[in-house]
Amino acid sequence: MRNYEQEKQERIAFIQQVLADAGAEGIVFGSSGGKDSVLVSILCRLACSNVLGVMMPCGSTRNYGSDMEDALTVAKQYDIPMVTVDLTAARDSLLAAVEKAGELTAAAVANMAPRLRMNALYALAHSRKSLVAGTGNRSELYMGYFTKWGDGAYDFNPIGDLTVTEIYEFLRYLEVPASIIAKEPSAGLYEGQTDEKEMGITYEAIDRFLLEGKADPADLAVMERYHQQSHHKREKARIYGQLSLNVFYK
Fold it and tell me: Is residue 244's pLDDT more than 80?
């Protein structure tokens, strides 16, 4: 059986070492109330007394409802200071300005919210002499299911090696509220959005492939397509003199 107590202590030590190496005084992280941000917020709080969780609703009603309630429940349980930065008006203003230059795709519009959130997190972190903690997991990283320069931007990530399956197991060990584990994973980018519906594959299927190397042909085709088209997201930006890379925008 996996020793999550030992793993918790090792991840806490990792976070503390990252802070020490950077000479940082604290940690700032997005707090969406989802499984990933909940686990990150708990680990960061156990590792450091100077943390700040930032709820950043941006248009979707789920942002203002169950997600915010779950984030506040965990914050109260672990004594995590929280603030709310409502980015809806900022997104609307940016959208109106950019649309004057040309028509935007639905995906381009959806990705505005994660990039605005990144901007807000780094502004707060810079002002607090803090680092930004990432909240992406291994399953999302493999699929490229994150926004480049949005939720894919951070100073360190204490859970990036964990699949969604493993994150749920970790959360059960930590005895987080059942509502967080039960609800469908969603970035809350637009009304009715869920991760699995958007990707066309379940996290169970993705994790079965990552952890066991097994996959149905149809699922494997979806994973291969996503993994290939998101290759650029997992690499550093190219510099002149390096080989070019085809870019596919999410």
Answer: no
- Each residue of 12-45: b (16+ CB within 10 Å) or e? beebeebbeeeebebbbbbbbbbbbbbbbbbbbb
Residue 22 token pair = 């950077």
Tell me if 177 is assigned to some domain: yes
Total H helices, total E strands in the chain:
13, 4
Closest CA relative to residue 25, chosen from 126, 174, 169: 126
Average pLDDT of span 83-92: 96
- The domain containing residue 116 runs over which residues? 4-198
Quick check: helix, strand or coil at residue 30? Answer: strand
Could you report the per-residue pLDDT of 88-142, keeping only the tens digit for each?
A: 999 999 999 999 999 999 999 999 999 999 999 999 999 999 999 999 999 999 9
Residue type, 136: G
Pairing of strands 82-84, 130-132: unpaired
Burial class (CB in 10 A: 0-12, 13-18, 19+), 3: exposed
Give the H/E segment covering residue 204. Answer: helix 203-212
Its pTM stands at 0.92
Residues 6+ apart with CB under 8 A from 9: none
Rounded Cα distance between 227 and 238, Å, is: 19
Is the residue at 244 inside a domain?
A: no
Tokens found for residue 245: 């890379």
User: For the chain, what is the domain count?
Assistant: 1
Let me know if residue 230 belongs to a domain.
no
CA distance 222 to 116: 29
Q: Does residue 234 lie in a domain region?
A: no
- What's the CATH number where 72 sits? 3.40.50.620
